[in-house]
Structures are given as structure tokens and as C-alpha cells.
Amino acid sequence: MNKKVLMSATLAGLMAAGSHAVAQEIKVGFLGGFTGPIESLAPGILQGAQLAVSQVNAQGGLLNGRTLSMPTADTTCVDASAASNSADRLVNSEGVVAIVGGLCSGATIAAANNAGIPGNVVMISPASTAPAVSDINDNDLVFRTVPSDSFQGIALARLLLSKGIREVAVTFLNNDYGRGLADAFVAEYQMSGGQVLANVAHEEGRADYRSELGNIASSGAETLVVLAYADGSGQTIVRQAYESGNFLQLVGADGMVGDALVNAVGAQALEGMIATRAGSPEIEGADVFAAAANAVNLDPNAVYAAQAYDAAFLLALAIEKNGSADRDSLSDALRSVATAPGEVILPGEWEKAKRLIAAGQDINYEGAAGSQEFDAKGDVPGVVVEMVVRNGRFETLGLID
């Protein structure tokens, strides 16, 4: 064989090997807000999803031993165009079968409408809580493993009233997340006897909110509820609210929960701040996830890490159930593996799930953050936990009834 023939044969072999390697890989994308107002929260959420990927690959991979990979893309959280473009890259360039994400509600809605739904790609958000997500005309493609803010807003209102806080002022980020959460909170708070002395929208990205805070303070409210993001307007507002000395109590919701906020603003400024976020019920799956997370130095209580784990593990189960890496019928398979009846599958039980699916048996995933039984709109029931800043960090106090 001459050198030219040998080189051609070698090149052909390398190309075939490369094609085989690509064929062996199944991609589930991760659409996150790695820059922008939740950038300190995004890494922990991604780590939760990556833990599920690593367990799947360590226990035999997908289908007939194919590797699960997770390409990532950034939405910036607040830029609909960036979210749409990033989702388009995952759907049409990376060729993902499904997506974990987005994280911010507006980003998820934009990504779904402009790329996910047209591409017939199932998306599961672990963090998009706006009620508007439930109303996407999605062909049963958009799901979430976190409860809607219709639920969190009610829980926050009841928590404050249970503490004897009868008057508040509210400032909320003027987007799908902020508006939806504020609407749910205000409705429940007022219906249950509380008084909202001011309810003011604000825009992201400003350096100074002192004028707005002065107007809010003139209402006489001593408790300020800030419904925004910890690395964006929320951080600036709580800092300037503390500096003003006009408010005795600061309150936030899930977008404000993170020790990075305390580090940025100062422990003394935020000591005693009350917050809520979606949590994990006291179930076996939560304990199993916590042990696995601790083993890889992931804080199991990191905001929405458990929900991201569930989203990724559920998508892997759905692909296995579907029997192929095709996008068609994946939502049906997802509902099947997430819904009773069926043999219970806990976090990390990938080998068991593969064996049962191969035998034609039904399975029912009971996750790290809840049972994850999707309703007709792709929503799940959930629990909300009370948080408080103590000694320079957010602590979880327990479930809110």
C-alpha cells in the first residue's frame, strides 16, 4: 500500500471513528443565566444537573451504553434575544434531545417560544417560577420541577402574617418573575388582613434606587419586601434601603436567596432578613440526593440544585423509556416515568430504572425535590421553606405550612 492510499485509509478510519463517537453521545442541553442578575446562583443549579449526568454515565449510560453529555448556553437571565439565540444554538447547532432550563422565567418563555417549541424539544425548568410559564402554548413540551409563584407568593404572605407583620411595602422587578410573584403575594396578603402600603415596580440594571425607596418609605411601611434578583436590582435595593435607615425589616423570595448577596451587602446589613424559596419535602429522595451531593462537594441546599437534578434525571429516564434519542414522543415518555403507578425510582437508581424499563415495567420517579408528578400544564406541587439571614448566611428554618 503506497503512502497516499495509506493516508486515505487512515483518514477514513479516523472520520469513521469520529462519527461513531458523535453517534454514541446523546445531548441534553443546560440553558442557564451564567451572567446577569442570578450569576451567583447558576453554578449550583448546573452542578445539580451535572450530578445526574455523571450518575447516568457511571451506571451504564443511556440506551445501549451511549454517553449523556450536557452542553451549556447562557441567557443572561434578562435578555430575551440572548435567551432565544442560546436556545437556538442548543436546539439547531448542538442538536440536543431536550433542555434543562431556562432559569429565569422570561428567559424560559422566550427560549421556548422561539426555539424549543418550534424544534419539538422538551424543556424542564428547575427555577422558572412565574405563573406565566404555565400558560405557554407549548404542545406539552415545557415542564418545571419547581412550583409556580402562585404558590410561593401565598406562602410568603402567610409567613409574614404569622410573624405579626401586618403592613408592608413591596418593590418588584418589572418582568414576568417579579410581576407574577408580587401579584400572588399582594392578593393573598390583603385577602388575609394585611395592608400593602406601597406596591411599586422597578427596572433592572440601575445604579440608584434611592428616589423610589424614599417614595416607598413615605408610605410609613417599616417592612420592605424586595422581589428581584440577588446579583441585580435586588442587591442594590437592599443595600440602599439599609443605608437609608427607613426600614426595620427586609424580606425577599427565592431570587434573593444566596450567601453571595450577604457577602456583597454585608452581614450586619442583612442580619434577620426573611426570605422564602422552594424546598424539598421530607422524603427519602431528598436524603438520597443530599448524600450524593455532599459526596461531590455540592451543597444539597443550594438554591434549585435539587430541582435541576430532578430535571436532568427525569429527562434521562424519558429518553431511556422512549427507546431512542429522537425528540418525538419524549413528552409522553416523560409523563410516564414521572407518574404513578410504577416501581419507585429514587435519585441515583439509574441501573434499576434501566433494568425495569428494559423488562417493560412501569416506573415512577420520586425525586430529590418532590414527587414531580406533572399536571396538565407541566407544573408540579411543591413546598416552600422559610429562610433567615443569621451570622452572615442564609439558614433554612423549615417548611411553611
From TrEMBL:
Question: Where does the Leucine-binding protein domain lie?
Answer: 25-338
> Does the keyword section mention Signal?
yes
For this UniProt record, the keywords arranged alphabetically read as follows:
Amino-acid transport, Signal, Transport
Q: Record's Gene3D superfamilies?
A: 3.40.50.2300
Q: Which residues form the signal peptide?
A: 1-23
Superkingdom field: Bacteria
Q: Does the keyword Signal apply?
A: yes
- SUPFAM superfamilies in alphabetical order: Periplasmic binding protein-like I
Regarding protein family, the annotation reads: Belongs to the leucine-binding protein family.
Q: Which PANTHER family match?
A: LEUCINE-SPECIFIC-BINDING PROTEIN, PERIPLASMIC BINDING PROTEIN OF ABC TRANSPORTER FOR NATURAL AMINO ACIDS
**UniProt protein name:** ABC transporter substrate-binding protein
